[in-house]
Specification:
alpha/beta; Rossmann fold; 6 helices
């Protein structure tokens, strides 16, 4: 069955390692008949959450701030699976991804009790380090986030040892990302 997949690419490098992982994942997902929508968050003007709790009045445009998020909200609502794609920055997501994800709370504000929509989720991440200790903080956060949202984890593609832009070219992890996209 075809899925609607939303990729939130939090990398500031539009041709970097995370972008290449997203490309490979998309190739695999498209080959399996899935519909993939990708937002390169660096290209969008997305401001941080104001914490105003005044959103949710208009489901078509749930946040009081009108910026780059207005193009993401419809794709987010329609998506079956959300792919969080980011380079690892200080053992966490990039600021671009965190800022956009925080703003998704406006969609929850449309629902009684601020109920978040139920989704499946996957993580794609590139990092300089490649030890289990390196991945632990971000994976702990990712799992806690999904537990709180009651989202189903579909898996992760973690590419370590790729600091310089383009260092991932030719690496087996790109094929892993393709296979992962095709397997959903």
């Amino acid at each position: 069955m075809s899925k609607r997949i939303l990729i939130l690419n939090g990398s500031p490098r539009l041709k970097g390692n995370t972008a290449m992982l997203c490309d490979a994942f998309t190739e695999g997902a498209a080959s399996a008949g899935h519909i993939v929508t990708r937002f390169d968050l660096q290209k969008l003007d997305i401001r941080g959450c104001l914490g105003c709790v005044k959103g949710g009045k208009d489901p078509a445009s749930p946040c009081v701030q009108k910026d780059g998020m207005t193009s993401i909200y419809p794709a987010y609502r329609d998506a079956d699976l959300i792919v969080l794609a980011s380079p690892m920055y200080y053992w966490g997501f990039s600021g671009q991804l965190k800022t956009a994800f925080d703003r998704l709370f406006a969609v929850a504000e449309c629902n009684p009790g601020y109920a978040n929509p139920r989704k499946e989720c996957a993580l794609i991440m590139a990092a300089e380090g490649n030890s289990p200790d390196n991945w632990k903080p971000v994976l702990d956060y990712y799992r806690a986030l999904l537990d709180f949202l009651q989202w189903k984890d579909r898996g992760q593609v973690l590419a370590g040892g790729v600091f310089d832009a383009g260092a991932i070219a030719g690496q087996p992890v790109l094929q892993e990302a393709r296979r992962f996209g095709a397997s959903l």
